[in-house]
From TrEMBL:
Superkingdom in the source lineage: Eukaryota
Organism encoding this protein: Chiloscyllium punctatum
TM region positions: none
Gene3D superfamilies attached to this UniProt entry: 3.40.630.30
Name of protein: Alpha/beta-tubulin-N-acetyltransferase 9
Catalytic reaction(s) noted: N-terminal L-methionyl-[tubulin] + acetyl-CoA = N-terminal N(alpha)-acetyl-L-methionyl-[tubulin] + CoA + H(+)
Function: N-acetyltransferase that mediates the acetylation of the N-terminal residues of alpha- and beta-tubulin.
Assigned EC number: 2.3.1.308
Top EC category: transferase
Residues covered by the N-acetyltransferase domain: 70-234
Annotated keywords: Acyltransferase, Transferase
Amino acid sequence: MRPNTHVTKRTLLSSSGTAPAQAGPPGRTGPAQWDAMRLNQAVELQGRLVALVPYTARHVLRYHQWMKSEELQKLTASEPLTLEQEYQMQRNWQDDADKCTFIVLDKLKWVGGLCTEEDCMVGDVNLFLTDPEDPTTAEIEIMIAEPSYRGKGFGKETTMVMMYYGVTKLGIKKFQAKINLENTISIAMFQSFHFEEVSVSDVFQEVTLGLTVDSYRKKWLLEQTSHIEEKQYS
Ligand SMILES: CC(C)(COP(=O)(O)OP(=O)(O)OC[C@H]1O[C@@H](n2cnc3c(N)ncnc32)[C@H](O)[C@@H]1OP(=O)(O)O)[C@@H](O)C(=O)NCCC(=O)NCCS
């Protein structure tokens, strides 16, 4: 079993490994980023393939179904939760000051009104602040849960949209991704975004990749995401 300090998306604790963070880390008056992490609660981001919307209670049932998949549990280093725990997890991700999460929708179906929002869901993406002393460093996690949507560019666009949002709205300057060593597709994807190896954990069988967003990388990211439209989510 993993220690509490090794936080995954589906750890019910906050990233400090203690109580859920509601207003930033103890002892801090709160730099803008700690509040910014909750700014996405009314934000919808539209790319070419994907629309990112805030993770709300309406998405939980479908999400819960996805996470019964042993393949997804393994690929995302997640443990199965009860439905009640899943709702608790959704509230944590919505309310905590160190987390920002979006549900990924099939944009064309979604804007064309071809399905309900729940039926347009294909995955999720999130950022969480990993260092209580540094609100500019975030871990990024992405999951295209629907197998039929993988390998079609959804993961790539979603990751870029989230990085764009992290850099331009949340003040993120460094990203990290922790990936199972067997997950060669995810590793290849992050490497294609110029993430580099930071460390390898034999214990967790995972690699940590990192990217510092210097001015060159920021320019590249803004070019890649110039098509993104931000809208009010309701
Ligand atoms: C990993 C994941 C996010 C990639 O998203 P995707 O939509 O399937 O991939 P995309 O079509 O956007 O391709 C993105 C990149 O992934 C890599 N990739 C995708 N399919 C691949 C394959 N079959 N073989 C090797 N690399 C592949 C490539 O680097 C590709 O970039 P390129 O097209 O410029 O070569 C997605 O497959 C997924 O969520 N899988 C299950 C959960 C998971 O593994 N999450 C990551 C945990 S860290």
